[in-house]
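Hi L.,

As promised, F-box domain-containing protein:
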Amino acid sequence: MDEQNPLQLPTEVLHQIVDAVAEQDDADSTLVAITQASRVMGPRANEHIFETVDINIDWTDAMAMLNQSYTANPTLLAKYPRNLNLWSDGDPTDLLNEPLFGTIVSHMQNLRTVSVVECDIEGRPFIDAFAAPTKHQITSLELRCVDLTYHEFATFLSSLCLTHLNLGELVIAEYESNLTCNVEAGIDFSSPNCSLPQPQSALKRPLQDLRLDLIKTSDAVVMDLIVTSRHPIIAEDSLVNVSFSSDWCTDEDVYRFQRFIDCKAVKSAETLRLGDSDEYYFTEADSSEYNPLKFDMFKSVEFFVRDRTPESEFKWWAKSLRTVRASSPLKELRLQITFHHLDVNDLPDMATTEWENFDDALCGRNLALEHLSIDIVTMQPLSTQIEASVRDWFLTCLPGVREEYFNKGTGKTAFLNVY
């Protein structure tokens, strides 16, 4: 009889107990106690303790804690971590230059997700660890607000199994300082005159989800790289979802964006998100006079609209919706508007030309939508009664949409959510 399992419970049941403990808030201390008390349950507890390695590189004690764990039992950091998150509060230390940090990362054999946020990692030796064969099974990569070289960027992309890629606010040294082409017209990496670094062989990563937010110059260059690289970066017909936004979009950039949306890798996706629900809308600029953006090759399209001047974006989206071909595969449309300062006790009159124009475009005969979803985000708790008032107010602003999609008997699926 096992003294540490006197009831002789099945291993599966013991694992379920540990899993339940891990779901509780502040579970680490209890999990550590389990590793010390039970030889049977300890390995399962270690899986939870070391599954995610979070490192704030501003914290000078971070290396000491990693060193302590690694020295005590190197196997734990080699076997269990599946997620590695590095971030900074803006005052980075020399942690990433520590040779031991690179050693620890190189020994992590089962990483699946890597996130690097708010970090200057240019020239940091630990990045070489991501070129090892053990890192080729990473499936998810996030690089946001990161300074690095092209070689380091390419090293992160070396995983053969990469399916989720989240990029934004990158500063790639060679792309920021040595632009040899007309940036506004877009860079053609396939041109023999382009000297910017790019892959020397086909990567064909099996991406399913791509998020690209254009904030820095390098972000736009990466967009052009995806479109015009001499060797394909994304496997053909692999993308399912594409999220795309711009912090500085101008009308002159629409051609560049259209080229990205039309490229072979992107246009095969099912869903295009123009903006993102987390924090980014498609553009912070006034887009009312922009040329239309064509997106009717996708089955589903989502718009994320900011509340500062939604009417200007409505004008652009209306123009874009009118370019949709009647025979296009576009069947689903989602609209999310975030009102940061909506006074629910004094809802504004939205009977303006821009709203009427948008209402008319959503009901155009060229559209063959089967599903329309509208989310009104108010950024404040609402009672059920007020939610209903906001819902009625919004549909009053779009009477055509109410008639076309929300009235019974239309044969279409429509949702209007307020939260």
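The CA atoms of residues 67 and 100 lie 8 Å apart.

Thanks again for sending the construct details.

K.
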